[in-house]
Amino acid sequence: MRSLSLFLGLLLVTATVHAQTVPVEDDYYKMITLPIPEGVVLEVGGLAVMPDGRLAVSTRRGEVWLVENPAMDGGGRPHFSRFAHGLHEALGLAYRDGALYTAQRSELTRLTDRNGDGRADRYETVYAWPLEGNYHEYSYGPVFRRDGAMLVTLNLAWVGYGASLSPWRGWTLAITPDGQMTPVASGMRSPAGFGLNTDGELFYAENQGDWVGSGYITHVETGDFVGNPAGLRWSHLPGSTLTLKPEDIPDTGEPLFEVAKDVPALKPPAVWFPHTILGISTSDILPDSTRGAFGPFAGQLLVGDQGHSKIARVFLEKIDGVYQGAAFPFREGFASGVLRMAWGVDGSLYVGMTNRGWASTGKAPFGLQRLVWTGKMPFEVKTMRAMPDGFELEFTKPVDRQAAGNPAAYAVTGFIYKYHSTYGSPPINQEEGRIRGVMVSDDGMKARLVIDGLREGYIHELKMPGVRSADGLPLLHDVAYYTLNRIPEGESLNLAGMATSGNPQRAKTAIASATPQPKRQTTMPAAWTGGPDVTVTIATEPSLKFDTDAIDVVAGSRVALVFNNDDDMLHNLVITTPGTEDDVAMDALRLGLQGHEMSYVPDSDAVLFHTALLEPETAETIYFTAPTEPGTYTFVCTFPGHATTMRGTLRVTAR
Ligand SMILES: [Cu+2]
Q1: How many A from CA of 591 to the centre of ligand 1?
Q2: What is the mean pLDDT of the chain?
Q3: How far apart are CA 259 and CA 277, in angstroms?
Q4: Cα–Cα distance for residue pair 557/535, rounded to 1 Å
Q5: Taking Cα atoms as reference points, which of 17, 46, 61 lies closest to residue 365?
């Protein structure tokens, strides 16, 4: 009886907490939207805060705007004035000594206002590079290095795969203010974001694609090769810091850290961002240099994501001279695709956005927002450090020692991605680790986990659903992804006196893989001796769209549907029962680590028919008998983030 009332009491507490008091990100970090004057297309490519607090914004459309009073102090509105125009896709901006510097497609440019009228009257080429003209040849930067040189990164072209069509595409370059260029490193595919950490070390953010299984950030040093071989075709040029050739890179699908054992110049990522979970397109990297003005994460990195309109947080540490660390969710819900971040003079964060004609979960085509810490302390894992036999978590607030000391409060899974010329990768080699024990510090600020089954080179997902703060709250984000490049040497913890897991089951369990998918028939059924009644072809269009809004088929007819993915990213095509397409898309998003291998098709009665998840420039034909019930069905791409724009109607008409 007592246990029943205790149980009911717990239920009540849980219900109350859920109804009223479970905090959300917005309780700690407020988003403030800056009003942009009508007619200004502020597709943000670069942000720079001037010493006087004005915010300079460069745009994909080739303009530079100066924003006075961006913090809207005293309730005043920001004032926008145009500083420069006519630039070719200005995807970065930096301020130094009275000048603004921006990377255009083909050059690094210095903009100065000599007569002080608030408009640039001098556009100077600092250094120019060749350009082939492919749409995907973005140029980013600059970021000032501590020695005063400016860093610029050059995107690969896209010709059905990443290609370096002109010298130094796929490289990071260092350029001095007087125009001396030195190549730094190669292997970049789509290096939209890069920045220095608080120690002045360079990190760049990569986007999933060919040779890139998932997004990541990599520590970049002179002479590094960071993954995509296309840029290596220029390694013979004078000044190259590499001797590797594209053909030196084996295309086996082995994980990158394994290949790096045979290719010493190949640098594994410092921290991976699991695709569709922590984002789909990593962008800017900005260290928290606010010394506490922005909250408890001083010194850590913020990393933007364009497609998911959000920002992740990264704790880095160095083991045996190698960077590694944990990525955590931080703040989602921005108005458009997050591309750039910059600190305001008051320690708030300006976030510059564009969806670049692609799409993002934030629906606006562009925007400018400011993120302000409310001063309230979120309950978060502040740091996560590798230990010889597990991890040490440090919290922002004291934990409930009993809850956080229970091994069942945690779950750990290791996995990694393939390294190959194919676009993207599913998570592979998944294995659960076993939490052998947990020791919580006396002050409740730290938990030491002893774990069986940690693997060097692997990403470790740590879920912490059972952890509670001393005042009863769940973690604001109860998951972390730690990239374990090195397991530190040292003494393992003595488990005596620790809470240990009572379940001595298998230390390593391969997770069940691919479920059968009978709703996808890719060969014509033998019974269709006369062939299909109708063959329909649907292709893709840029900006996350199908090229077909609606198709008509007769109820019960035999349909061959050709889905031709001629886009530059992964897509599927899923036909759903009427009115369920949004639920199916949401279920696909929740598949998490299992999503890729399931082609982002949830196991649901609402899914009628579907294709596989198709690589760029591939096609698949599926065969199905149209529903016998006339009506309006929807076809949709359920790859996370695509469903809002990538959908059409299947009209089934009566026979
Ligand atoms: Cu799609």
Answers
A1: 16
A2: 92
A3: 25
A4: 11
A5: 61
Residues 6+ apart with CB under 8 A from 483: 216, 269, 270, 271, 272, 324, 325, 326, 327, 458, 459, 460
Q: What spacing in Å lies between the alpha carbon of 544 and ligand 1's midpoint? A: 6
Amino acid symbol at 179: G
Cite the residue boundaries of each domain of the chain with CATH code 2.60.40.1220: 380-500
- CATH architecture for segment(s) 380-500: Sandwich (2.60)
**How far is residue 462's CA from residue 167's CA, in Å, rounded to a whole number?**
42
**Cα distances (angstroms) measured from residue 245 to each of 95, 233, 235, 327, 376:** 36, 6, 7, 32, 52
The DSSP code for 190 is S
CA torsion sign, 486 to 490 to 491 to 493?
Answer: negative
Distance 595 CA to ligand 1 centre (A): 13
Is the separation of the CB atoms in 297 and 327 below 8 Å?
no
CA atoms of 353 and 363, how far apart (whole Å): 11
Round to whole Å and give the CA distance between 371 and 334.
10
Task: Compute, in angstroms, the gap from residue 500 CA to the centroid of ligand 1.
Answer: 44
When pLDDT is averaged across residues 303-309 and rounded to a whole number, the result is 96
Alpha carbon of 596 to ligand 1 centroid (Å): 13
Cite the residue boundaries of each domain of the chain with CATH code 2.60.40.420. 534-653
Distance CA 313, CA 287 (A): 9
Sheet of 171-175: strand order equals: 139-144, 150-154, 171-175, 181-186
Note the pTM of the prediction, 2 decimals: 0.83
Residues of the chain with CATH 2.120.10.30: 25-373
Q: What is the DSSP string of 490-537?
A: SPPPP-TTSEE-S----S--BPP-----TT---S--TT-TT--SEEEE
Superfamily covering domain 534-653: Cupredoxins -  blue copper proteins (2.60.40.420)
State the distance from the centre of ligand 1 to the C-alpha of 357, rounded, in angstroms.
Answer: 14
Q: Say how many Å lie between the CA of residue 643 and the centre of ligand 1.
A: 7
Say how many Å lie between the CA of residue 344 and the centre of ligand 1.
36
Distance from Cα 560 to the centre of ligand 1, integer Å: 20
Q: How far is the CA of 640 from the centre of ligand 1 (A)?
A: 8
Residue 573 Cα to ligand 1 midpoint, Å, equals 8
CA of 193 to the centre of ligand 1 (A): 23
**pLDDT tens across 400-422, in order?**
999 999 999 999 999 999 999 99
d(CA 34, CA 71): 8
How much is the average pLDDT of 77-84?
A: 97
Backbone angles phi, psi at 581, to 5 degrees: -60, -35
| Predicted confidence (pLDDT) at residue 127 exceeds the cutoff of 60 | yes
CATH topology of domain 25-373: Neuraminidase (2.120.10)
